[in-house]
Structures are given as C-alpha cells and as structure tokens.
Q: What sequence folds into this?
C-alpha cells in the first residue's frame, strides 16, 4: 500500500498545530469582540448620559445650558427649560403594568388552550398564527394602533362622555404594548407547558381531578418558572419598545398621569420625540434617558428573576443583598403602619 | 516474551479534576498483536485507551502523570496530530462524516495534503479492500456514507483509519452498537488486520476477547489487575478478582 | 377541624357537582375566548392593512420616487391651432377637443386631490409643448399630474388653474377657452418607496456581511474551541445579555460611535446606511452567535473526535466537517437576521436618520421601509394608505422568511432522519 512520506506528515503536523493555535487565538479575539458589545454599550451610554449634567451647552432664551440632576431625577415636566424625567419613569412603569395586566392572563390562557385543550390541528394552527404575530415588526403594531385602536378608544371615550386627543392615550399605548408582548409570552409559555412531565398530569387525573382542574392547578404550577421567563421577555420587549408606543401614546411632556384616557409618554417615546429638530442638550439628554431605561430594565429583570427563584425553589435561602432588601421593605412597612396606627389612634 | 514492544506505559495515573480515574498503570503493548482491555464498565479501560493517541488532551480538567513511550519516545513530546496519524482510532458508535464514501476514506489523506486524484483513488480502494468493504460498495463510492448499514459504517471507519497507514489501531468497543452478524464480520476483519497493524481493543465481551486477542489486560476501578496472554489469562487467572469476573460473579 | 369524609357519602352526584361542571366549562371557555382574541389580533391587523393598503399598492408605488419632480412647459411662441381633429380611444375622462387631451381626477401618493392626464391623442398639441429648462419638446407624460397651468384665454384674460383646487372638468372647460399655454407645471407622482426599498436591501446586505462572519466565528469558538471554564461562561452570558438591550439603545450607540466613525472615514456628514448597518450588526451578532452555536451543538458529538483521531487539526475539522453541516443553521440565523433588519425602526431612526431619500448611497442618510412607515405616521396628517401599502410588502416578506426557516428545518430534519 502506498504510504505518505513520514517526514512530510511530521512537517504537516507541526504546521497544523501552529495554524490551530493561531486560528484559536483569532477566534477567541472575535468572540471577545462579540462579548464586549454589551460592556461598550453600557459604558458609552453611561458616559454620554452623564455629559448633559456636567457639560455647558450653548443655550438661548430660557433654555438651560446644563441639565440638573436633581430636576432630572425628580422633575415632572420635560422641556428645554428643564428636563425632569421622574414622571416618565412613573408613566413608563404604569403603561407597562397596564399592558401586563392585559397580556399576562391572555397569554397564559392562550398557551393553555393551544397545548392542552385544543385538538392537535387547531392548536397547531393557533401556534403558527402566534408565531406569525411574533414576527410582525413593531412599527406595524404602531400603525395598527394609530389607525384602528386610537379611533376605537376615541369613540369609546366619547361614548362615556370623555374627551381624548384623537384617541392617543395611555390606554392605547398599553393595548399596543400588550398586543406586542402577548406572542412573546405565549410562545415561551407554550414551550414550558409542553415540558411539564406527564406523570404530574396522570397523578392528578388519577386522584379524580377533572381535566380542566388538572390543567389549571397542576400544569400551570409545573410551568411557573417557564411562564415567568416568558413574562420577563415580554415585559422587556414592552419596556424597550419605542416606535409603536410613540405613535399612539400622545407624547405628553408633563405628568405623571394615571387617567388612562389622557395622553401620556414613556421614556422611549420621549427619546424619539423631535429627533430631527433638536441638537445640543436637547439631543444628548436622550442618552441620560437611555441610562434610566437600562436601569429600569435591569431592575425589573432582577425582581422577576427573584420571584422566579422563590417560586421554583422555595427552600433556597435568599442571598445577603436580597435579605437586606427584604428587611428594608419590612422596616418601611412597619414604619408606615406605625404612621397609620398613630393617625387612627389620634382620630 | 521477546516480542517487539510498540507502546510502553510506565506508572501512568490519570485524574479528572480531583478524581483519580487510572491508578499507577504499567503495561507493554506488543507489535502486530491484538491486545484486549476488559473489565466492568467504568473501570477506566476506555479512558486508558484514549491516552494512547492523546485524545484525553481534549477533555477539560484531565491530567496525566507518568509516561507512555511510543517506539521509545514519550508521546507528550510527539506532535499530537502526527501521533494521531500513526495511531488511529475507531469509536464505539460508527460515525462516518456526512459525505461520500470516497471522501470519508480519503479525509485523512486530504488533510495531509495528498491532492492527486489517482493516488487518492488507489489508496481508497486498497483500504476498502483491506477492511472487507470494497466488494459491497465498489459501485457507489460517490454515495453518502450515511446510507450504509451500521456494520458497513463501522468497517468504513476502519478503512478511513487504515488509509493513513497507521502503526496502531485503537478500537473502543467497536462492535457494541452492532448486530451479531456485523460483529462477526468485524472480528474476522480484526484477525486479518493484525498481520499489518498492532490493535488495541476495548471490549466488555469476554468471548470476543478470547476469540480475537493475543493478550488480555483486566482493569478494575482504575487498576490494572492482571495482564497476560489471552490463553493464560482465561485458563489460569492469577488474581481472585479476575477469576470472579471470568466466572461471571460480577460484570 | 378536619372533616372526615365517609366514603359512602361521596356519591356520583357530589363528585361531579353542578358547580364543578360549570367551573370546568368556564375555564375551558375562557382559554378559548382568549386564544381567539389573540389570533383575532393577527387577523384584524392583516385585514386592516390589506384593506387599507391594497388599493394604494401598485408597481408605480414601488418603483417611483418619494419626492415629486416638476417640469415647466410652454407653448411655442408662434403657436396657432391648425384645425386638426382628435380621436380619443378611452371613453373615460374629461376631454378637451381643442387640445386633444383628456384629464381625470385622482390622488397623488401623498393623498392630495390632483388632476391626472388620462389620455393624450397621438397628434395632440401637448406633444408640441416645450420644456422651459431644456428648450426641447417634452414627450413623456406617463405618471404625471397637473400641478398648475397658466392659460391665455380667448377673451384676453389670464387664467391660472391649480391642480389641487380645481377639478378635471373645470380644467378642461378653461382649456377649451384658451389659445395659448403660457406655463404648464406638471409633476411626477411622488410618495413612492423605491429609495426605501433600495435602502432596506443595502442595509440587509451590508449588515449581514459585517455580522455573519463575526457571529459564526464567535459561535464556532464557543461551541468547539472554548474550554468549559468560568471565563467562557462569562463570555457566553455577556453575549446572551446583549440581546436584552432594547434596540433604541443600540441606536444611541450608532449615534455615539458609528456615525462619527463612518463620517471620519468617508467624509460624509450625519447618519448613513453604513452607520446603520454597523448598528444593526452589533444588534444582531448575539442572535447569530446563539442560533449558529445551537446548530453546531446539535451535530453528532463524534465528528470532532473522529476527525481529530484521523490526524486532522481543529481548524481543518471546522472548515471541512463542522461548517458544511451547520449550513442550515447558519442560513436560518441569516434569515432571522433579515427579518429583524426589515422590521427594525427605533435603532435606525437614530443611526441613519428619518429623512426619506430617492438617491440612495451607502454614505448618505435614507430610510428603510419600517422607518418610512414611522415617518409617514409621525406627520401631522398621517398617511395610512401608503403606510399600509408598505406594511403589506413587509408582512409578505416576513411571512416568506418564516416559511423559509420552517422549510429549511423540515428538510434538515428529514435528512437527519434518513441518515439514521
């Protein structure tokens, strides 16, 4: 049998080992670039977001030349004479909360229907429909919201004797956000419902529970951690959504407003407002809003993850930081309670 | 025993992290013989086999102490890629690449920079003939190798190995995923191959060891319990544990 | 107190009590109602978009420019009627027998009422009008509408007819009294989306060229080269976390880094397709890494081992065995990326800008289709017709892409099944 030259192989092998090392190093380098995207993003946004508070910008009239951090963190109106973002935080959370109230039950029930109740073919049709809905770009939701939801809200509000600004309102924003997060939450929930062990279901049925009791009491419990992951994803999408919300919420520049028929605004809608026209401070202050948005997203993620861990792992001891937070919360609670008690006793 | 030694293992210990998987093993592998490693599952025989072509380098936290001499040279000093062309390996699961039969057999050669079509073809046919597969596949060398049956796939893997004309072929339970007929074909092939190659085979089938091997090493819990010619080992085991294992007291 | 249930007490009527049955039905019905609602949203969106957008969706809409271009025409100075006759082929439209031309009312792509040319007879005087700017006879009236026309009437007065204030009928009645056209201002139908389509295609191309190689290499490293230690875990979770950042934040990165970067290299000013593509690339890399890594990890484990045992190097294994077999996964991740590029708006508003352009170049600002919709809607008078028409295009592309991914995964699974 023909053989390859021994020394040739040896030479080849040495060369290949070197190539392997070089390629491995190059690939590591590229991977480091991929992983550093998030670090760069955070650092840059933080840096650019702090600049408006320390740098002097050219200003005319009653415009401020430097943003004030105190006003930014506590202010209730947003204009070139003072950038207060506190009301935006409140309003963002309020809108997202409203959307969650709509989207979470709807998603869970839909997922339950698709996985456990519908006949297989129907379930598959529904699932493809939801997948399709998930791939609809956000700006189309905005178009639908502006073209369909807003007029409906306007007419409905008119019907009950309220005036709206053409239907653009907090409620419209919440509905559009809910429509966008429903497919995300539903798809993750479907996956987690599918992975609930069959033995749970059989055990429940064998104890004489009906199918629907099993579905609601056993299957949903078994899928809790997956459902919460879905909620984390869905709320993340809702919090970060910009274009669709900006089209339907009305972009109020002061607040906060809790009237669902009033115009409102979110952090992201303000970021998009007047983008083509503003320069200088009016433009750069958006980066500061970016920091705020990221902080809110991280905090909601942490809270929901904590809930998830508590639900799925009730025996796990919470970490020190969380313990401290809990003590703090308990302390605040008792403090307020004391206040209440005092009030009551004084009465 | 005045056979030519090809591998000489001296006081080899192997750790996975903190766990010791092989304990102070010394053994000589003889040229052009079939050596069988037997033992209950989890005794470290497969791990030991993978030391011979340094496949354990790929496993995280794997640490080797002691030395293995390949033709009187420490294998840690040999370039691993070179070592692996000289010491081929056949795995438990037949795992041909999803490409044509011809490309599978010539894969190693192409990696060594052999480009001439007729040379590749010649070696391909020769290795397939040696691995007793040529007659079955000669009309469909361009077909996807995944279309072959399990036994054929395993023989293809052997052919792929032979194509590089190695000195040693390591086989890690090559028949455990195959049916009895395919197994007997592979065993027959192994008996043929030992004329040209040194074969080290891991098996958990004692009958197979008696049928094909010249030497047998019995491992248990990371220790080399006994190493002897196959006839001697199965007829007069010296260690109590070997005796128990052979007589089927545990497996 | 625990109530001890006597076995004989539980009779069948109690087990399936009425209350329990009603509850059962309610539960099942509630799931049905909500799933129909969810699916209803999709159907409603599709119906709304198709009903509103379809009448506006035409070939000229897709291929024409967004900005209107106008041409000014006049009669020759020594123009007189020579008493020729005209034959109209199209019975519709308001016909001017004097000039041999007919008009029809219509809307331009911005939704304004304008007067369109319906038919111009072969021997019409309109084919003898002269372009002010070139002093040559103007012949191409296709897709043009009348913006304004200044006429010398038979009674010696001077009449200006504005296209958006007069109807076609009135225009024709004035035209039939006129002996000279002093100034005819015609415009091409604007509001087209050719520029945005080109921008979207350019964005897809450039973004994939940047992001795919980086993403695939990252995936290969994580799946095949990386040691399973803490550092790899950190790298992987950093890449995972990147996808939790909202896209508008990436838009900021585009403004902060990529726009100045591209400007300093190409000498352009402001956002450009290149800066947008860089922004989209960093946004998509984590997803590409993830999907590609998954498809590599789904390959049979033995490939790497058996290839190495045959004396191949890792690099050779990657390029000869792993990558060819991971192609379906890579294509899937590319398709997913295309879907996201088409749908992305917030990041692009910042990284490219929001001014709709017809002359697309890599170093200039323009809009993708999704941003085009956003621009149309954030106007004072939102143009729903055009926005819906663009949405139809986007939805159809997205649908095709999702069908493609399903087809690829189906074919791949069938191939794997056959090989087993």
A:
């Amino acid at each position: 049998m023909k053989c390859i030259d021994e020394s040739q192989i040896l030479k080849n092998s040495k060369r290949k080992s070197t190539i392997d090392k070089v390629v491995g190093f190059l690939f590591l380098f590229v991977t480091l670039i991929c992983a550093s995207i998030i670090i760069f993003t955070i650092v840059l946004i933080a840096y650019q977001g702090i600049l408006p508070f320390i740098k002097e910008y050219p200003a005319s009239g009653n415009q401020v030349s430097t943003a004030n951090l105190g006003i930014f963190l506590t202010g209730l109106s947003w204009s070139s004479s003072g950038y207060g973002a506190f009301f935006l935080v409140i309003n963002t959370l309020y809108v997202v909360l409203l959307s969650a109230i709509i989207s979470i039950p709807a998603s869970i029930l839909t997922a339950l229907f698709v996985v456990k109740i519908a006949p297989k073919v129907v379930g598959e049709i529904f699932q493809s429909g939801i997948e399709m809905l998930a791939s609809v770009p956000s700006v189309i939701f905005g178009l639908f919201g502006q073209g369909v939801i807003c007029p409906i809200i306007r007419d409905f509000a008119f019907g009950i004797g309220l005036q709206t600004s053409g239907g653009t309102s907090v409620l419209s924003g919440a509905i559009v956000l809910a429509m966008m997060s429903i497919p995300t939450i539903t798809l993750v929930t479907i996956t987690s419902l599918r992975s609930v062990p069959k033995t749970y279901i059989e055990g429940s049925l064998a104890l004489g529970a009906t199918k629907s009791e099993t579905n609601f009491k056993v299957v949903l419990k078994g899928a809790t951690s997956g459902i919460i992951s879905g909620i984390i994803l869905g709320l993340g999408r809702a919090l970060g959504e910009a274009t669709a919300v900006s089209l339907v919420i009305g972009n109020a520049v002061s607040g906060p407003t809790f009237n669902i028929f009033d115009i409102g605004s979110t952090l992201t809608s303000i970021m998009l407002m007047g983008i083509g026209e503003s320069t200088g401070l009016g433009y750069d202050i958006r980066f500061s809003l970016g920091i705020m948005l990221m902080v809110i997203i991280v905090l909601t993620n942490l809270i929901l993850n904590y809930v998830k861990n508590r639900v799925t792992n009730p025996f796990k001891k919470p970490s020190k930081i969380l313990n401290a937070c809990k003590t703090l919360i308990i302390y605040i609670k008792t403090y307020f309670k004391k206040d209440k008690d005092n009030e009551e006793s004084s009465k | 025993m005045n056979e030519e030694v090809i591998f000489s293992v001296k006081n080899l210990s192997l750790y996975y992290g903190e766990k010791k998987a092989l304990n102070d093993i010394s053994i000589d592998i003889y040229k052009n013989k079939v050596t069988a490693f037997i033992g209950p599952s989890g005794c470290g025989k497969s791990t030991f086999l993978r030391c011979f072509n340094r496949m354990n380098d790929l496993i995280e936290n794997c640490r080797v102490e002691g030395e293995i001499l390949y033709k009187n040279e420490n294998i840690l000093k040999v370039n691993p890629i070179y070592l692996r062309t000289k010491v081929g390996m056949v795995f438990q699961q037949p795992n041909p690449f999803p490409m044509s039969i011809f490309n599978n057999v010539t894969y190693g050669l192409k990696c060594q920079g052999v480009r001439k079509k007729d040379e590749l073809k010649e070696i391909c046919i020769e290795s397939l003939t040696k691995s007793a597969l040529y007659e079955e596949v000669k009309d469909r060398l361009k077909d996807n190798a995944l279309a072959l049956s399990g036994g054929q796939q395993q023989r293809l893997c052997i052919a792929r190995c032979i194509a590089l004309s190695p000195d040693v072929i390591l086989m890690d339970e090559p028949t455990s995923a195959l049916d009895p007929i395919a197994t007997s074909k592979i065993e027959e092939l192994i008996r043929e191959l030992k004329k040209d190659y040194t074969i080290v085979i891991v098996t958990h089938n004692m009958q197979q060891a008696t049928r094909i091997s010249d030497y047998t090493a019995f491992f248990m819990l990371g220790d080399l319990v006994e190493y002897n010619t196959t006839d001697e080992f199965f007829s007069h085991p010296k260690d109590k544990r070997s005796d128990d294992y052979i007589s089927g007291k545990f497996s | 107190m625990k109530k001890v249930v006597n076995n004989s007490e539980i009779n069948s009527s109690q087990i399936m009590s009425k209350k329990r049955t009603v509850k059962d039905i309610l539960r099942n019905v509630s799931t049905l109602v909500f799933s129909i609602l969810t699916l209803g949203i999709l159907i409603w969106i599709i119906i709304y978009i198709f009903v509103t957008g379809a009448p506006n969706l035409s070939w000229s809409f897709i291929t024409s420019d967004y900005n209107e271009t106008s041409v000014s025409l006049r009669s020759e100075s020594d123009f007189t009627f020579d008493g020729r006759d005209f034959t109209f082929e199209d019975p519709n439209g308001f016909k001017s027998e004097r000039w041999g031309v007919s008009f029809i009312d219509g809307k331009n792509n911005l939704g304004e009422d304008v007067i369109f040319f319906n038919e111009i007879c072969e021997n019409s005087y309109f084919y003898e009008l002269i372009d002010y700017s070139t002093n040559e006879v103007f012949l191409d009236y296709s897709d043009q509408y009348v913006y304004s026309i200044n006429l010398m009437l038979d009674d010696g007065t001077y009449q200006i007819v504005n296209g958006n204030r007069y109807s076609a009928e009135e225009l024709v009645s004035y035209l039939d009294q006129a002996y000279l056209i002093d100034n005819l201002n015609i415009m091409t139908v604007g509001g087209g989306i050719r520029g945005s389509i080109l921008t979207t295609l350019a964005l897809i191309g450039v973004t994939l060229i940047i992001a795919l190689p980086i993403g695939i290499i990252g995936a290969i490293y994580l799946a095949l080269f990386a040691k399973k230690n803490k550092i790899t875990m950190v790298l992987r979770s950093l890449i995972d976390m990147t996808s939790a950042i909202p896209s508008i934040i990436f838009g900021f990165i585009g403004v902060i880094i990529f726009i100045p970067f591209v400007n300093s290299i190409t000498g352009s000013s402001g956002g450009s397709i290149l800066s947008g593509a860089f922004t989209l690339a960093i946004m998509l890399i984590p997803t590409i890494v993830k999907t590609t890594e998954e498809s590599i990890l789904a390959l049979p484990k033995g490939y790497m081992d058996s290839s190495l045992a045959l004396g191949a190097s890792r690099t050779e294994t990657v390029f000869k065995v792993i990558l060819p077999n991971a192609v379906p996964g890579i294509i899937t991740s590319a398709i997913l990326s295309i879907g996201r590029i088409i749908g992305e708006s917030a990041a692009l508003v910042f990284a490219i800008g929001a001014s709709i352009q017809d002359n697309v170049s890599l170093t200039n600002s323009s809009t993708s289709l999704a941003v085009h919709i956003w621009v149309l809607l954030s106007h004072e008078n939102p143009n729903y017709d055009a926005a819906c028409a663009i949405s139809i295009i986007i939805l159809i592309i997205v649908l095709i892409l999702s069908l493609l991914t399903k087809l690829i995964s189906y074919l791949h699974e069938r191939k794997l099944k056959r090989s087993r």
About this structure: Chain A has 13 helices and two strands. Residues 91-269+303-315 of chain A form a domain with the MetI-like fold fold (CATH 1.10.3720.10).
